[in-house]
């Protein structure tokens, strides 16, 4: 088989395995997801395009973060993504890898490392992006969501709230609906830390609808976290309204 054709087939295979791995994660089959991501990593391992393997590592790291206890396994995948992205041709993929590295560091409570990785992500996006092989993979609006997470877990909750609000407003395209819902729920977590439970209970309603309509596992997990942190106000009407919404959506889903 000619070299260019073989390379194209490996690229398509890597994309297919990555998508299948994400779908397996969304349906709760984590064992199948790991096997599919391993196949994707192997298919993307051809020399000459390390940014493609970085894309696989990034996706794998995200699902690992939500399916494996602790963050060490996700950290290893993110570090691998950064190594590949730094030698690859896609600056946007490199920015995304650095952004995820910043989130992992923030979740570990290492603010300095988080800010360093975040600064590298902004530096990547400030460069000339013409000719990037992954032109739509990552934008400044997406990066602001990661910036908010860094502030939420290792910085200032008030800053996190404002960053999340700006990011959610900018993510207004239909294909960004799920990401917008996730960011709004993260904004709710910032509100809880700012002792603003009314606003915190109001924001997740969009995530309830998004999780129900898409079946997305990450929005559902983020929503569960927000509802858990609202427990101190569980006897108040503001949380009861959210619970009623959750029950109503669950009932509609059960009758489909």
Question: What does this protein structure show overall?
Answer:
With 256 residues, the protein is mostly helical. Helix content is 77%, strand content 0%. It contains 13 helices and no strands. The longest helix is centred in the N-terminal third of the chain and has 24 residues. The N and C termini lie far apart (48 Å).
Low-confidence stretches are none
Number of distinct helices = 13
Q: Gyration radius, to the nearest Å? A: 19 Å
* Computed structural class: mainly alpha
The backbone outline, from C-alpha atoms, is globular
Strand content: under 5%
For the termini, the CA-CA separation is 48 Å
The biggest sheet amounts to: none
Percent of residues in helices comes to: over 70%
SSE succession: HHHHHHHHHHHHH
Q: What is the arithmetic mean of pLDDT?
A: 90
Number of strands: 0
What is the multimeric organization of the chains shown? single chain
Entry keywords:
256 residues, mainly alpha
Describe the protein's topology:
Elements: H1 3-26, H2 30-43, H3 50-67, H4 72-86, H5 91-107, H6 111-125, H7 140-154, H8 157-170, H9 177-193, H10 197-202, H11 205-214, H12 217-229, H13 237-254
Helix pairs in contact: 1-2, 1-3, 2-3, 3-4, 3-5, 4-5, 5-6, 5-7, 6-7, 7-8, 7-9, 8-9, 9-11, 9-12, 11-12, 11-13
Structure, briefly:
The chain is built from 13 helices and no strands.
